[in-house]
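User: Quick one: structure for sequence A, then sequence B.

Assistant: Sequence A:
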Amino acid sequence: MSTNNYTAILLDMNGVIIDDEHIHEAAFRQVLGEIGHTLTPEEYREHYVGRTDREGLQDHLASKGAAVAGLDTLLATKSAAYHTRAAQGIQSFAGVREFVEKAAARGLQLAVVTSANQDEAVSVLESLDIARFMGCLVSGDDIDIGKPSPEGYLKAAAILGVKPSHCVVIEDAPNGVLAAKNAGMYCVGITNTHSRTSYSTQT
């Protein structure tokens, strides 16, 4: 990979910047438990990782043949549960802060493209003191269709004023890798959440 033509780095958040997938999973498990449903680790990876909360919850409940009534209330409850757990402390992955600072110092543009909702994303970036390095944040609230749709990544590139082919994406989930590739961007898939073999169909 030659770096000469790349001028922007677009980062996924959950599983790339912060180690909080377990917090999201626990929050969803709490919400689903309150309406009489379970959530296994396998179900969480299948339905939720790399997707917006709304899409994940709709898909999961549909797979159980359950009604999806009161979805907005369930999503608000999940967000509140996430914030309560995250307030106890969230950790960035090792080296993230240094990577962001060095990339910004080299004149690269930075953005976050996440399936998380706006409030969660802003809270995380501010708590880690890296929001100031980001040229934009595209959250799950800013798009109509989540990953693997390229919408979020294309929107970030447009805001930054960068051609998609000049962007490098860092992702941790197959749906995110597909979204980046569908956007015509170079993608680095890391193995914080999924194994290397999970990306075999995306390469």
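Sequence B:
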Amino acid sequence: MATLSEYRERPHWSYSAVNQFVNICSLQYAFDRIYRLPRAFVPVALSFGSAFHRTCEWVNRNRMEGSMPGASDASALFRDLWSRQLAQDGDIRFDEGQTPESCGRQGADMIECLVKSIDPAEQVLSVCEPFAVPLVDTSGNVLEDPLIGELDTVVVSKGRKTVVDWKTSARRWPKDKSGLDLQPTAFLYGYVHLHGELPEFRFDVVVKNKVPVFEQHVTARTADRFARLVELVRTVERAVAAEAFFPNEQSYYCAGCCHVEACRAWHRQSRRAISLAA
């Protein structure tokens, strides 16, 4: 099976790309993925999430091999990976009140919380499983570019399979978030095309409280939601082809965007001249 990096070498769609265009900011999508603008800085959430995800991967690969890592070992690994991430990313933009040291302590506590919350009866079937599948509408028409992604882990408990995604969050999730989120739709669509069966989906979330809190949010998807996903991607394709990019200035992500200056100049640098003369 090819790796996710190999799948990324050809034109494709991903959950993160579609979500960025639809739910975050289409102009940010263009700056990142069309115009390839260099980032002015690295958001701390991106660096922190990378170290957290790599630690979760290590934990679950050990679980898959029949060995449950200790919470202290996992915390120590996060600290080591966080130090490497700091050196690798360089210009990280921290939020107010944050420091590299405070993020390291917080991440170590969060990993410890996660490990202590794992159900020992749950069996890990796969970790970081990549997929590249065709996007097919209800009439059997196939979009030109496939959907790619990577499943954090797949587990089974009492005969029931679940695709699990690891998350960190600044606050507790609303009850309806997992039901509305695009990621379970995209990832379960990929799983169905890979394996011919439809499991449920679960977010394993560690909330960044002073004392971290572990949450699980289980959700499911139907064939109709998959059909809606394909139509959504088709609509985004048309918008991208038309260069219909615009800022979302009330987005939750706006304050931490690394393309602030380019965004501020967007209306002055557009290729389409606008005349105000009547």
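Residues 1-31+122-244 form one domain. DSSP finds ten helices and eight strands in the chain.

User: Thanks, that's what I needed.
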